[in-house]
Amino acid sequence: MGAYVNPIYPYKGPADLMSTPPQRKALIVIGAGPVGLAAAIDARLQGLDVLVLDDDKTVSVGSRAVCYAKRSLEILDRLGIAEQACDMGVSWNIGRTFLEEAEVYQFNLVPDAGHKRPGMINLQQYHVEEMLIARALALGADIRWQHKVTAVTPSADHATLTVETPDGTFDIEADWLVVADGARSPVRRHLGLDIEGRVFQDRFLIADVIMKADYPAERWFWFDPPFHPNQSVLLHKQSNNVWRIDFQLGWDADPEEEKKPEKVIPRLQAMLGDDRPFELEWVSIYTFQCRRMTDFRHGRVLFVGDAAHQVSPFGARGANSGFQDADDLMWKLALVIKGQASEKLLDTYAHDRQFAADENIMNSTRSTDFITPKSRTSKTFRNQVLALAKHYPFARKLVNSGRLSVPSFLTGSVLNTPDADAFEGHMVPGAPMDDAPVQVAGQDAWLLDQVGKGFQILWFVDALPSPAQLAQLADVGVQAECARPGAGAHAQPLKPTILIVAPCLLSIPGMDVIVDTQGLVAKRYDATPGTTYLLRPDQHVVARWRGLNANAVQAALARATGLNVGGHMDQA
Fold first, then answer.
1. Whole-model pTM?
2. Which of 39, 186, 506, 512 has the fewest Cβ atoms within 10 angstroms?
3. CA atoms within 13 A on the CB side of 238
4. Are the CB atoms for 131 and 84 separated by under 8 Å?
5. 3-state helix, strand, coil in the chain (%, to 5)
6. What is the pLDDT of residues 427-463, one digit of tens each?
7. What separation, in Å, do the N-terminal and C-terminal C-alpha atoms of the chain show?
8. Residues 496-551: tens digit of each pLDDT
9. Which residues have CB under 8 Å from 287's CB, separation 6+?
């Protein structure tokens, strides 16, 4: 056994970035954490040049974000590292909650079969960052380590950054700036932008422990266990025999004292037994908060991840919601930069992800209030639920040890076209897409691996489409009403690609047919012959119809690219 050793990434001097007047870049990302790197990878996949600035020279210390949800894995599939992450990580679907030593509740994150990815994997954040860095560099992202942004000055059509390096300080301009510099966000503070919400008065000890144990790959959470009475404990298995253990300490605990090995080791021995050998890899004390910025967009400056919002760790919503921020933002930003959409489209990033942040904060706050009740009423409710859960099944579903991260259904997005036809199921406009097994070109595949490549039309058929029908779909496309100066006149119209889903292989020249081998695509999308879906580049449903109507698809595509969006939504 041995502790993880952080890699040191090479420093490259800024001589090529220094000039008078300052250079202008189309896109700069501040922060080489998971969310900033995801944004940079997405930019490169869409053909955009990107400069990433980070004030450090290595990956994060300690496990930190450890649980990566199914939706994040689907995003990482598109970005190109999910297979590697799943191979290294610990996959799990089952969570168990205990009161003292008795199990009172359990859940299964993926109760039905036919999904490529598990409900969760556990993998230390530093491993995920290493994978993202390697992928970003392979795609040609320019990552500059030890480049600390000390000031940002917004202007109408760009932002000016002051950057401090070991070789001096310089200014550089960005047409668009993505801020992913973490919960303490120096850029947010420098700009004097607000962040509001609750800070919870409790302290937790994180211990990353290297040990060999035959516990199952599940999430275990205890209320009032005999080895840590009157408090809670959380246990997760990670890769390379590392186990993450969180001990609730209470607000009065002294953080510096509790981090000392002579305090940590007895707690671990009480839980694990005196005879089990282990090694401490990392110890930290944390408090937590549930709050967000009022607005994630400030002109040409866009905030993502912890820089924009923070939640408590119960439910694994931090990094997972950050990946969804980048997933939502980057296709919209790419269309704007390429001149295929007006920058008004970016207002929908702020609107939709602020809604998602509120949903995450609500669920995170409820979990935190249950785990660490701060009022007499909350504590009475919690204790009564736990007492009843010992004997009555109805109470077990009320035990809230952290409802796990699920993606937001963006049903209120102005980009959606409301249903005009009746559908069953939950693939409503605004929903993140469900996966299903399929075949493509005679090979077993997955539905979600076929989508996420721009706007796409998913058309269900049971017979060979006519040339006239295919020609109708091929003509669907929109031209931006107000593209960026210098590019708009030459911007290509935005045209969706066509994906045909059939119960058996159909031979259509120049087109791959998705074969719904088990009928699960049709079942999950409540599809009958003729059913048509319009899909966003981030694998969200944006419109659907019972029959093919090229004019309706054309109108929905125009709406989905922001042609009907007015001024800044939160200021309207």
1. 0.94
2. 512
3. 26
4. yes
5. 30, 25, 45
6. 999 999 999 999 999 999 999 999 999 999 999 999 9
7. 58
8. 999 999 999 998 888 889 999 999 999 999 999 999 999 999 999 999 999 999 99
9. 199, 200, 201, 202, 203, 204
Which stretches within 184-279 are classed as H helix? 186-190, 255-258, 261-272
Residue written as token pair 């599939």 = 77
Tell me if the bond preceding 21 is cis, omega within 30° of 0: yes
What per-residue confidence (pLDDT) applies to 547? 95
DSSP-derived letter for residue 512 is P
Residue 113's φ and ψ, nearest 5 degrees, are -80, 175
What's the chain's length in residues?
572
DSSP-derived letter for residue 189 is H
Please tell me the distance from the alpha carbon of residue 46 to that of residue 56, in angstroms, as a whole number.
27
Segments in 259-317 forming alpha helices (H): 261-272
pLDDT band at 569; cut points 50, 70, 90: very low
CB 532 within 8 A of CB 553: yes
More confident residue, 565 or 174: 174
Nearest CA among 557, 565, 511 for reference residue 534: 557
Which residues are bridge partners to 51 per DSSP?
28, 142
547: buried, middle or exposed (CB in 10 Å: 19+, 13-18, 0-12)? exposed
Measured distance CA(180)–CA(54) in Å, rounded: 10
Burial of residue 339 (number of CB atoms within 10 Å: 0-12, 13-18, 19+): buried
State the Cα–Cα distance between residues 20 and 37, nearest whole angstrom. 29
Distance CA 446, CA 80 (A): 15
DSSP 432: B
